[in-house]
Design a protein that fits this description.
mainly alpha, globular
């Protein structure tokens, strides 16, 4: 038994001199970093209390900062006494995402479920009805704002990206030119420029007296930007579908839309899952750029919380807390994409 236990490390970690050196180097780095990190984060920290002096006197992390500021970090400028509303809206969003993740629930009623969740979340966030105090969306912030921007951005940008990808491969010159022009124009500028133009330039072109909500402008900018990148990922999937699939669909007498949605797109999207999810993860993190137009997403609430002078030295704990939330959502998306790849695997192998 002991010989078997030693066989794997001897074969994979110490089989050559370079591998042995790299293994010893990695073990030394782990020994130098992991125990001090555990000591700082779990053994010596200050877990609670509202006195920054206690944190400065301690040798470990100051999780008391997170315990004291967590409501502002999570919900931003939303009225303190009404924090149950963004909390409930966030839980509803997460519950809807969990239900949507199960392929068993991919039925017609899922769209109805999302419609109800969106309406209930809008009522909870805005208020003004059922005795709820009205809260302007300039006071939204933290995790709910990040979730709204990312989930709505993903949901709306995906069908738009499919149409753009199909348009770029269209035989109609006008549709192909418009699709290529849009994709190349949007991909040619950074997201921060798109948000800036949506916030500053777009209102200049509106008729006098007409205005569009700042959050809506940011959301539209994120949707258009994400759709342009997704369209290229989906176009790559479309190009990977063998020509014989098109000819087989034509031989069956299927029209363009039936051929596209019943034969071509399912195969193209299956191949495109990794780049699509990669774009979703990138977009989820890029919502932090709405800081440029004054929206208090999770990163902005973290930075604002650190402007309190007594707590300013504990920025590491603040950013670790924010990073943990971002990581949790991104890790979920990554693992879910792997699950989808395994589930949609039909044994098809490309040459």
């Amino acid at each position: 038994m002991a010989v078997r236990a030693l066989h794997w490390p001897r074969k994979h970690l110490f089989n050559t001199v370079p591998n042995t050196i790299l293994t010893l180097l990695c073990l030394w780095l782990l020994w130098e970093t992991i125990p001090p990190l555990i000591q700082w984060a779990l053994i010596d920290p200050v877990w609670s209390g509202d006195d920054p002096a206690a944190c400065r006197a301690a040798e470990g992390a100051c999780w008391a900062f997170v315990a004291t500021k967590h409501r502002f970090l999570l919900f931003g400028l939303f009225p303190f006494d009404e924090h149950w509303r963004p909390l409930l809206a966030t839980l509803l969003f997460i519950a809807a995402l969990v239900v949507s993740s199960n392929p068993v629930s991919w039925r017609w009623w899922l769209a109805a479920l999302w419609a109800v969740v969106v309406i209930v979340c809008a009522i909870l966030m805005w208020g003004g009805v059922f005795g709820l105090t009205y809260v302007d969306n300039t006071q939204w912030g933290g995790v709910p704002l990040t979730l709204i921007l990312s989930v709505v951005g993903i949901t709306v940008s995906f069908p738009l990206a499919v149409l753009l990808a199909l348009g770029r491969r269209s035989d109609l010159p006008l549709i192909r030119a418009v699709s290529i022009g849009f994709i190349e124009l949007v991909r040619g500028v950074p997201l921060i420029s798109v948000l800036f133009m949506a916030s500053v330039m777009f209102p200049l072109f509106l008729p006098e007296g007409m205005s569009v909500d700042k959050l809506l402008r940011a959301q539209v900018g994120i949707i258009l930007f994400t759709a342009a990148y997704l369209a290229e990922a989906i176009r790559g999937g479309l190009q990977s579908v063998p020509r014989g699939q098109f000819e087989a669909a034509d031989a069956l007498g299927l029209g363009y839309w039936k051929k596209t949605f019943l034969v071509i797109l399912p195969q193209a999207l299956k191949v495109s899952i990794p780049p699509i999810v990669n774009q979703f993860i990138s977009m989820f993190k890029d919502t932090s750029l709405v800081i440029i137009i004054g929206l208090f997403d999770l990163m902005m609430t973290t930075k604002t919380a650190l402007t309190d002078p007594p707590w300013r030295p504990f920025y590491v704990e603040a950013y670790l807390f924010a990073a943990l939330i971002y990581w949790a959502f991104c890790f979920f998306m990554s693992r879910y994409s792997q699950f989808l790849e395994r589930r949609l695997e039909t044994g098809h192998r490309r040459a």
